[in-house]
Amino acid sequence: MTDSDPRAAKRAELVEALAAIALADGLDALSLRPAATRLGTSDRMLLYYFGTKAALMRAVLLCISDRLADWLVRAGGEARVHPQRMIGQATELITQAEARPFMQIWLEIVARAGRGDALFGEIAAAIVERWIDWLVARVDFSPGVDARPSAAMMLAIVDGIALLDLAAPSIAAAARSRVSPT
């Protein structure tokens, strides 16, 4: 995007605003008409900037994923860490109030993907790939360790604990105690 591309600038502005709406009120808040009304525009204008609702959802959910990654870096630091320490840090960070909306959105995406919604399946797969890349870049894996499958396993642990946090917090706390960040 350049300053000379007002359509791209407006699209980016809309993505940020829609991400805030979704984080505050969940995925259902991204229905075109209600979301457009909240933004003071029309559903037709949203489609003008995004082309399709699928493109809008993809852009907004990838923005949310990027926001979470940025927050994790600020909260947890940028230094490469041992895998167990990363799991411990991540499972502690997801309990913070700032992380809860992100985790709720992620679990909504996964649930919709699990019910066979192709759009959310595609988005979930893209987000998982981004998170695996993120972990590979930030974890100090031992020599000879295949980083991508190891990062996928780490992500599964953190996501599992996030799910337990919403469904059975005491069990999540017990699981978290097994992956101390220190």
In short:
This protein has 182 residues and is an all-alpha fold.
Poorly predicted regions are: none
Mass-distribution shape: globular
Number of domains: 1
How much helical structure, as a percent, in the residues? Answer: over 70%
CATH class: Mainly Alpha
The CATH topology: Tetracycline Repressor, domain 2
Instruction: Report the biggest beta sheet as strand number plus sense, adding barrel if it closes.
Output: none
Distance between the termini: 41 Å
CATH homologous superfamily designation: Tetracycline Repressor, domain 2
**CATH architecture assignment:** Orthogonal Bundle
Strand content: under 5%
Number of strand elements? 0
**Mean pLDDT over all positions:** 91
Rg (CA only) = 18 Å
What's the number of helices?
9
* Helix and strand element order: HHHHHHHHH
Please identify the structural class as seen in this structure: mainly alpha
What does this structure look like?
- The protein is mainly α and 182 residues long.
- The protein has a single domain, classed as Orthogonal Bundle (Tetracycline Repressor, domain 2).
- 75% of the residues lie in helices and 0% in strands.
- It contains nine helices and no strands.
- The chain has helices at 6-25, 32-39, 43-50, 53-76, 83-93, 100-114, 118-138, 147-167, 169-176.
- Helix 1 packs across helix 4 and helix 6 packs across helix 7 (118-138).
- The chain is globular.
